[in-house]
Amino acid sequence: MKQKLILLIFLIGANWIHAQVFDTEKIKDSGDNDKRLNLVILSEGYQASEFDKFKTDAESIVNAMFSQSPFLEYSNYFNVHIIKVPSNESGADHPGTAVDVTEPHNIPVSSADTYFNATYDAFGYHRFLYYGIDYNDAIEADLKINAVLAANFPTYDQALIVVNSAEYGGTGGEFPIVSNGPDANELAIHELGHSMFNLKDEYVLPDAYYGEAINMTQENNISLVKWKNWINTNGINVYQHGTTGVPAAWYRPHQNCKMRYLGVPFCSVCKEGMVEKIHDLISPVESFSPNNKKVNNPSFPVNFVLNLIKPQPNTLTNTWTLNGNYINDNVDAISIVASDLEIGENVLIAVIEDDSNLVDVDNHNLSSHIYTVQWTINYSTLGIENIKGKTNEYRISLYPIPAKHVLNVKIESANYQKLSIKITSMDGKVVSSIPINSPTSTQIDISHLSTGIYVANFYSGTSLISSERLVKN
């Protein structure tokens, strides 16, 4: 997102600077913007005299959003900001050109001089509220939206536009846009499901809108479908989108999800996808201490502390090891004394995972987010010489599960450090040990293993960072 905004600065030059700096206010503050997902809500069709109403409308959406799962559990991961963009007139255009209703429908044909050119009847559908009647018409408004964000909050993660109109309407896309009518809260949450989390609609759609996604697939075999781990749990199964044509070839996971109907919860498959997206974007490690520290004649004990962004209720777990030896778990701080250390380099690692029941990997292609904080402690007979700390994040994927001949291991990490994997039988015997030298896919031959359940242990040096179950067929 930041790269796009920087490019636009060069493309539109001084145009974005002139009259584009507006009043910005933080209406949900969970912490440092750099360590949170930042949702930015822009006003459209609100005159300056109506900004109090805009703030109230935005707060209503935010209160509804964070009262529902999974936003409720991960509320601490989000900040919300509003940008008060003034329009010359209130409301939105209604050209009366929709082909899906008899026009004028509910509201008279009208036009309004608004900042982003919000209009009903976009793409021929009355309820399609967009910043242009079609994509070509929306080009100028798209530049304006990007320019406003670049000038006022360039490090946003997701933007939402709220239009000052009581008539039901909205669309998804890069910048979801919703009216402020009676269903505004639910509609905004639904549209954010599209734009922020890549969820598909679960009702019958025009043919061009079908495609593989978290909650949409052409696979109807319950043993192969991407949400097979949820089958027969919380109403999850494999349901056709429609009975004829293209919709009949596509399947959804639930009959009553928010991506199909407003006013109901997200289904378990959508929640899982949303939580995984949050994991992709935000580390639960907000800070740690000591960070990088030159220590002169330290007084023992030395305290090592994690400051974590915790879900509600807290589902984060952590395990501490020193030189590969277990120390403690599920504590945010430990103390080290001189007798704990060896002469030379010592490695203290805290491994953090989210054990949320909103993510279910049993009997599924396994993918785990692992976060680590590692301190290197240099110790001599004179005492601690220095302590250096750093964080890392790993996404570990094992597939297929179950596996028959070959197990694929993929490790994604921004700052990859050499790992190794040891496959252990249930009686504790190491049956395979493989170094993983780069964060690419590695194939492990398991054809020689007997059918059964094994544990794949991942190590950074001598420190265990993850244990994952695998099944050999």
Automatic annotation (TrEMBL):
Keyword field: Signal
The name under which this protein is listed is Secretion system C-terminal sorting domain-containing protein
- The signal peptide stretch is 1-19
Q: Which Pfam families match?
A: Peptidase_M64, Por_Secre_tail
**Organism field:** Algibacter mikhailovii
Highest taxon in the source lineage: Bacteria
Q: Which GO terms describe its molecular function?
A: metallopeptidase activity
- Domain Secretion system C-terminal sorting, by residue range, is 398-465
